[in-house]
Amino acid sequence: MLHVGITGGIGSGKTTVCKVFKILGIPVYYADERAKWLMERQASLVEGILGLLGQEAYTAEGTLNRAWISGKVFGNPGLLSQLNALVHPAVAQDGLDWQERQTGCAYTLKEAALLFESGSYLLLDKTIVVTAPLELRIKRVMDRDGVSRQAVQERIDQQMPEENKAKKADYVIFNDGERLLIPQVLAIHQALIEAAQAK
Ligand code: ATP
User: Fold this and answer.
1) Which DSSP state fits 5?
2) CB within 10 Å: which end of the chain, N or C, has fewer?
3) CA-CA-CA-CA torsion for 170, 196, 174, 12, nearest 10 degrees?
């Protein structure tokens, strides 16, 4: 079995593309969603975050105080990398445990916004990057989240440029509203099945 990572910038369409792979029977691990879950439920990680950021990192109900944490680490790269040093290994291990539980498929898919930045691509056999023109990404996220252009742009500015991601990937999916998604996904699906058989 192969383990494949899928990434792309904000609004590129990663989640949309993963839904197509899921319909093809491929198990998908959503690393960012899972990270949020682990940050609230995994005792050792919660303890680490409390130690690093203090009680205000969580609400009285025990949910992550996301806005407060963002404010705290935004513009403080040292603190952000300390937080990442707690979260990334916990998610990496959880992802490996998840992979071990998957059976009966040629490959698994791990969706993560920061696949290259976090180094988690190093644990994977192949990578896919979903890419879309910047303006289209901004419009899609503004519509989806009901946020301002500036808010989307600020999130985009914090990420590695999409063209750099595409250069590092084994496969690129163009979600530009012109090229159809499903034939691109089917071609990669077929190539991955063949690569898994050849492994
Ligand atoms: P994020 O990094 O913010 O989680 P994402 O890369 O996972 O974003 P999606 O949530 O899949 O992106 O897509 C962003 C928005 O654009 C969604 O509302 C989705 O429905 C829409 N979208 C994605 N691809 C297309 C497409 N080909 N045609 C029309 N709408 C699309």
Assistant:
1) E
2) C
3) -90
